[in-house]
Amino acid sequence: MSFTGRLQKIRELRREKSKPLLDGLGEWLRAQQAEALPKSPAGQAIAYTLNNWAALNRYLDDGGLAIDNNLAERTIRPVAVGRKNWLFAGSDRGGRTAAVLLSFTQTCKHLGLDPFAYLRDVLTRIASHPMKNLSELLPDNYRNQNS
Known about the structure:
By secondary structure, the chain is mostly helical. It has two domains: 3-60; 70-145, no CATH class. The chain has helices at 3-35, 41-51, 53-57, 70-82, 92-111, 115-125, 139-145.
C-alpha cells in the first residue's frame, strides 16, 4: 500500500472509530458547561476545550497528524535540557548554527538515520551537488534515495 493509501486508511479508521467518541465527548462537555460555574476550574477547563474544539478534531481529517504532540516534545527535550549550557554559544551566529545542527540531528534520529553518518556524507557531497537539487540532501529525501 502506498504512503498516501496508508494515510487515507488511517483517516477512514479515525472517522469510523474516533469521531463518534469525540462527538459524544463534545455533547457531554456542552451539557457540563451549563452546570459548571464559568470561573471554576472545571468551567475554565470545559471552556478551554470547547474553544479549541476544531483543533482537537483536526486529526480526524488528516491521517498524517498525530493526536498528541509527544514527538515534538521528545524532539525539543534535548534543547530544553541544554538551554543553560548553550546560553553563551559565542555569538548569535553560533546560536543559529547550533539550532540548525540540532534540527538536522533530531530529524535524522526521527527518520532512523545515523546523524553522524548523514552529516559526514552530505558534507562531502554538498560542494559538488547542483544548487537547484539541494533539497535532495535534506534528511527525508536523503533517506528515500539511500534506503
